[in-house]
Write the structure tokens for this entry.
Amino acid sequence: MTMKNDVCINSVIPDSVLSICRKLKYHGHDVYIVGGAIRDVLLGRDIPDWDLTSSATPQEVMALFKHTIPTGIQHGTVTILSQGVSKNESFEITTFRGDGCYKDGRHPDNVVFGVSLEEDLARRDFTVNAIAYDVESNQMIDPFNGIEDIQNKTLRAVGDPALRFQEDGLRIMRAVRFMSVLGFDLESTTYASLSSGFDSLALVSVERVQKEMFGLLEGEFVFQALRMAWETKIIDVILPELLNAHFEKMIPILPVLPPQKEIRMAALFLGAQDVKSLIKRFKLSRQQQTYIHAIQQGMKQLRTLTLSDIKQITLAIVKIGQSMIDDVLLLYELVECNQMMIDVVRARINEGLIWSISELAISGHDLMTELPMQPGSSVGVMLNKLYVHVLDNPNSNDFKQLITLAKKINASSAFSKEVNSL
């Protein structure tokens, strides 16, 4: 990733942001675009959020703008709602502030307003996020040489790194995420100070850690970031259930997987001592839990198969399901390296495997029309028998063949006994 030195900052700033800045300036307040937005502009990346900092107090901001939300007013943050022509947008603006102690490992106990811009920038996490931009003068304010660190792809804490990490444990996770997403290296003193914030990291809510972890997993440089997190024992703090041997084995595999948090998370969780406990503690969504469980079960099924038992292979494929089979096979191929089984499974799928009873060339209505069958459990039992037959004989999914077979099954005493036992 290279830095764009010829960027005209104002040309990429949304009109709504420029309008907010101009209005604050007109009323005598200093205002700057700050943080990740400036970093991403310099790197030529998409800017998901435009954050502002100003000398205006929260009350003054809310008095100037009609639509606002006191998002974190105790810490000086107000969200301005901008009603644009094509879409509604929101922008956070925070009053210049200095932070007090961080007893909870995440938030300052108190803040002091009325400080200078440089004092405000001094409280931020990394130099690449401590750059401000003045729209009116088209000037960068960079007291901690963040622009140089961006050019050198270096992630450096502002001021004393040990203090930064002790103040806010989430900064440790942010450091790893930035490594994964931006491909930056940690400056040596910053790297050496990570462990000083482990006690604070342990206090951070699971939801906050989860969000940073997901961003990390989707990064282009996920291998380098996770390896650093493993070597520095960050993983021991946030995911203690993972087995070290498995984790070391899996991290080179992650970049080969699609850059999606679910499949990469599922790969990591394969080596957990207690997957259910880990999933619950990490507060994954129901959909994510279902996905990871399906991956776990699919991998388990494939591991128990033998190449010669085509019937069991077929049943395993169907049980894994059409929506999951590709992801399971991808992981199985990377983890187990059993190419012969992969080839057999894919060949079986390509033979015209049907995934559900609904894909049969015959329906329950057809059975009741063509056979002396009444609505009830017997219809379902018959369809299931026909489905199993088609799984074993892919070329038999034909209406006439299935009707003939259904008549034969229906006339058997074994079928009558099975239905009557239900």
Summary: The first strand starts at residue 31 and ends at 34. Residues 233 and 282 are 18 Å apart (CA to CA).
